[in-house]
Amino acid sequence: MTSFAIDSSSSIPPSEQVRAWFAQRIAGGELSGGSKLPTVRGLAEQLGLATNTVAKAYRELETDGFIDTRGRNGSFVIARGDAAEREAQAAALAYAQRMHRLGITAEDAERFVSAALRAAP
Fold this sequence. Notes:
It holds the Pfam family GntR. By secondary structure, the chain is mainly α. The protein has 2 domains: 1-79, Arc Repressor Mutant, subunit A (Orthogonal Bundle), CATH 1.10.10; 81-121, no CATH class. The protein has helices at 14-27, 40-47, 51-63, 83-102, 106-119; strands at residues 67-69, 75-77. The mean pLDDT is 90.
């Protein structure tokens, strides 16, 4: 996941910057269904924010239907779209996790997917 920084000179509150950043990436498909978000505490530390600020952003994302928070298990992106899109998101996430476990770079993983798509009937 691409990192971002809070724009302290912006009139937009930090919690809204966090919420909007995740919402845009989820809606755009950069974060697919089932993807785990960073912990509230971890993201707050990374961004130099209070944990309550990040928690507020996560609550708003949940209210808006972007994520599901599962207590101590964390917060996860909710699959979006029709059944085929949700299944594709789940398959893409499983593939990405497997490539990570195998130590395959993102560039190589994308190359493998492109080749497989060209070869598929």
